[in-house]
Each structure stands twice: as structure tokens, then as C-alpha cells.
Amino acid sequence: MLLCAGSGTRARDVTGDVPKCLLEIDAVSLLARARAQLARAGVRDSVVVAGFEWRQLASAVGPTGTVRVWDGWETANNLWTLGANVDLLEGGGDRVILFGDVVFDPGILDALLDSPADVALAVDGSSRLEGTMRVRLRDGALEIGNRLAPAEADGNFVGILKLSERACAPVAAELARRFAEGRDRDDYYTAVLPDLAHTLSIECVSVGGNRWAEVDTPADYARARSIFETGRGGAGPCAG
User: Fold this and answer.
1) What is the mean pLDDT of residues 162-171?
2) For 135-138, which contacts have Cβ atoms below 8 Å and span 24 or more sequence positions?
3) For residue 57, what is the domain's CATH number?
4) Looking at the 3D structure of the chain, how many domains does it have?
């Protein structure tokens, strides 16, 4: 599942009226890169959860994927996005959930898929940036979010996680409960994970030497291009 519903207001100077995940590096959109990497890793089906300018996303995805439109994108964060679409966690099998504005080397996804944990989060232990989602895991207790002090964090959450088949039902139930109760409208979906850590195994999977970048601002986009652009029109890290 690729979470692409938001309008990306902080990046509006470079996106205009285009969804942020359609920004391009080497003439390939962030969305197309992520979908190519998922396919390369053996993930058979991908669902793009869209909101802002969803028709542009539907056109970009075409007949090779599924677009689910979430009408509440303007007034809520992605906890409610998933809370309103918990059926996407049903049907058996593992699930991979990605923020739509993340660019990453394929080794990050490979490491997540190899994890035996119920919840595997991609974490960069070398980075504890202000204004980002940070993670700390101690004796099975998980803290995650931008309120965690950088000095206390194990690293940055990269924006990609895997849920095992066993984890999908309890995560879906907690998301649905908070959505139905009108709670945590402004939270990320990861806010439900600490409450489930006593029943699910959780692993922070190191990104190792793999590169990643999250695009929230024009400066972030410039940085992502400086890291990943090859000048070869798409023959970058998503290829091969």
C-alpha cells in the first residue's frame, strides 16, 4: 500500500497542482519508482491510496494497479486514511505500507521482507533529524513519532514497514476503532503500534548502507535528486 492522499503543501513550490509522489527523478516519478521496486521484490499487488488530485494518480497507475480514493484527505492524517480503508489489510498475506514521498534503495525493501517480525520498520540509525518520525525500541516497548527527543531515539523511521499476516488483523482493528471513535485525526498510522507491542513482535530493521530520502519540501526534493539522479533517464536504483 502506497499512501499518497495528501496534498504536500510544504512542497507546493515544486509540485504545483501535481501530487507530490508524481515528482520525478531521472524522468521517473517517485510513485513509479516505488511500484517498480515492489514488483522487483516480488510484491504482486499494489494499492495506491489517493486523495488530492486523485485522477492524476489514477492516470499514472493505469490498468496495472489499483487506486483507492479517500475523500477525507483534506481534514485528516494517514491514521484515518488507513482507518477508513482497513479492508486493505484483510484477505491474508503480509502487507508493505509506504509513504508515497519516500525514495529509497531496493535493499531497504529486501531487508524488510526478510524480517521474521510481525512488524518490521525500516530505520536509519545514523539519522535523528528534527521534524521527522523517530523511533525507540526497548525491551519490546516501542516509541515512534516526532515528539520523541532526537537524543533518545534509535534512529529515523524511513517511512516503510512490513506487517506480517498475523499482525494485519490487530493493526486493522485498532485503526478502525480509533477512526470510528473520531480519535487521533492528525496522527500517523504508526501511532497504533506502541499499544500492540505487547502482543506483536517488532523489529527495527537497519537500512545499513542503503540510501533513502523523504520529500516534504523543495529542499528535500533537491536533496533526493542529488542522491539518486543518474542522468540516465530511469536507470537508477529502482532498476535491475
Assistant:
1) 98
2) 135/204, 137/202, 137/203, 137/204
3) 3.90.550.10
4) 1
